[in-house]
Amino acid sequence: MSDNNYEIAIVGGGPAGITAALYAGRSRVKTIVLERGAVGGQLWNTADIDDYPGLSMQTGPEVAQKFEEHAKKFGAEFEFGTVSKISKQGDEFVIETDEGEEYRALSVIVTVGGEARKLGVPGEQELAGAGVSYCAVCDGAFFQDKTIAVVGGGDSALEEGAFLTRYGSKVYLVHRRDEFRASPVLVEHFDATGKTEKILNSVVEEIVGDGKVTGLRVKNNETGEVSEIAVDAVFPFVGFTPHSDIFEDGLVETDEGGHILTDAKMETKTPGLFAAGDVRSQYVRQITNAVGDATTAALAAAAHVEAAKRTKATA
Ligand SMILES: Cc1cc2nc3c(=O)[nH]c(=O)nc-3n(C[C@H](O)[C@H](O)[C@H](O)COP(=O)(O)OP(=O)(O)OC[C@H]3O[C@@H](n4cnc5c(N)ncnc54)[C@H](O)[C@@H]3O)c2cc1C
């Protein structure tokens, strides 16, 4: 097998990719992980993790490092690379990167996750990095004793909002409904900090500021009333867009949100091509189910590789 030929290629090195690497390595299958940034994926953007069995209240970066060290023990190679295209030639997949490399593999596990969805309001893009942030753990400390607004009503908004009370003197939560998708325990935790105020049934119309964020224009859905609240920072946590645009036409099917559809083995419509973690169409997006998906995908991919090798040997 030449240098860039592998049995399994894993695209993305977040919790799903790391877990797939661990299981593929333990299956003694020649495996490469291609990651375009820091191994650990969204763990680097997560403040505290308190919902992964055995890892109580550890920081995302701590968990990322532990995951990476553990996976590397079993022999998978990790390479830097931004995958731009995955296509199929005969019984092999061809993986091309922005850096000009080409890899071939009998099976591919795609674990590329997604990225923060934007609010799409005036001021958001202009003030990004000047008070608008999508990462509480990265930027929260810049807003010590300041007023912060978090936008959204899911787990991330409530969890990261509670984290931001460590820094901010006050944290608003702006949410378009009066009920939450977030777990009740996270809502209770957010309220219990004593530094928060919820602005419900309301949408952000504009992030205001000149060079830095100074406020938020918010419209109440029920009354139509528009008000401005003075804030120094805005953290939108309103979901994300999956990175599922790297495939040759026809290789995968997606749901309406762009998440990849798989069967129970995590296999896409193309035999040998698997998807796991946040990029996959599913009900929840958590570390626990990303690693569960990846376990299934890696073992199914290893079985696919064995079957493909047997077919080649008898051909
Ligand atoms: C702010 C925040 C807080 C969270 N808190 C928790 C929590 O407390 N508990 C919990 O269980 N879950 C939490 N989550 C969710 C959890 O982080 C994700 O479910 C999990 O990281 C998904 O893992 P993944 O491997 O599928 O994707 P990701 O973690 O997104 O990893 C994908 C990886 O693929 C890489 N990649 C993308 N495109 C390419 C490409 N073209 N080429 C090469 N590499 C590529 C990315 O750089 C990234 O490293 C949180 C998420 C966020 C955003």
Would you write up a description of this structure?
The structure is a single chain. The chain is of the alpha/beta class and 315 residues long. It has two domains: 5-116 and 240-314, 3-Layer(bba) Sandwich (FAD/NAD(P)-binding domain), CATH 3.50.50.60; 136-236, FAD/NAD(P)-binding domain, CATH 3.50.50. The chain is built from six helices and 18 strands. It has helices at 15-26, 60-72, 136-139, 155-164, 184-192, 287-314; strands at 5-11, 31-35, 48-49, 58-59, 77-80, 83-89, 92-97, 102-110, 114-116, 147-151, 170-174, 196-199, 202-209, 213-220, 226-230, 233-236, 240-242, 273-275. The strands form five sheets. Strands 1, 2, 5, 6, 7, 8 and 18 form a seven-stranded mixed beta sheet that branches. Strand 11, helix 5 and strand 12 (196-199) form a beta-alpha-beta unit. It is elongated and about 70 Å long. It binds flavin-adenine dinucleotide (FAD). The site of flavin-adenine dinucleotide (FAD) has 36 residues, from helix 1, strand 2, helix 4 and helix 6.
Keyphrases for this structure?
315 residues; alpha/beta; FAD/NAD(P)-binding domain; 2 domains; seven-stranded mixed sheet; four-stranded parallel sheet; binds flavin-adenine dinucleotide
